[in-house]
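Batch job 17 of 40 flagged for manual review because the log was empty.
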Amino acid sequence: MEKKYTLEDVVRERFEATKQRGKYLAYIVKELDAAGFKDYDKAVMKAIFKFGKEKSKEWGNLGAGEFMKHMIPDEIGVATMKFQEVGASSEDRAEFIFGRCPLEEGWREMGLSAEQRSRLCGLASEHDFGIVDNDEILKLDMPEAIGNRDKVCRLIFTKRT
């Protein structure tokens, strides 16, 4: 008999999969630290940034509101991250928040300190900056992040000047 998956099932699975990606990033960093590697965060950030660029390479140049729709394209993404748009989006500006972060939850489950989680958040956030980098007309600001002890992750897309 074929199993029918509910939206709740799919959201739970996506959340868990994202949480697992956060955990393996944490384990990589812990092992590099334990092996005595120094000053490698920039290399890790560069790799994660490139991965973000790869994700969006076909999107082209979009206005802020349209770009946001590509970032969170469906109800699964909305439910997974507790996504909320802040205000009205336009071609020049779009802002949204995530009310939960699977990465942060995974790092907490691992018992990582606030300092460790903040460092990992900085590394993982390069994915979002890489995604936006392909768009020649937009820039991204992230003034709040759950991994930095904020209540939400806030992403603001604005037209480059």
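Reviewer: the log was empty due to a logging misconfiguration, but the result itself is present. The chain has one domain: 8-159. Unflagging and moving on to job 18.
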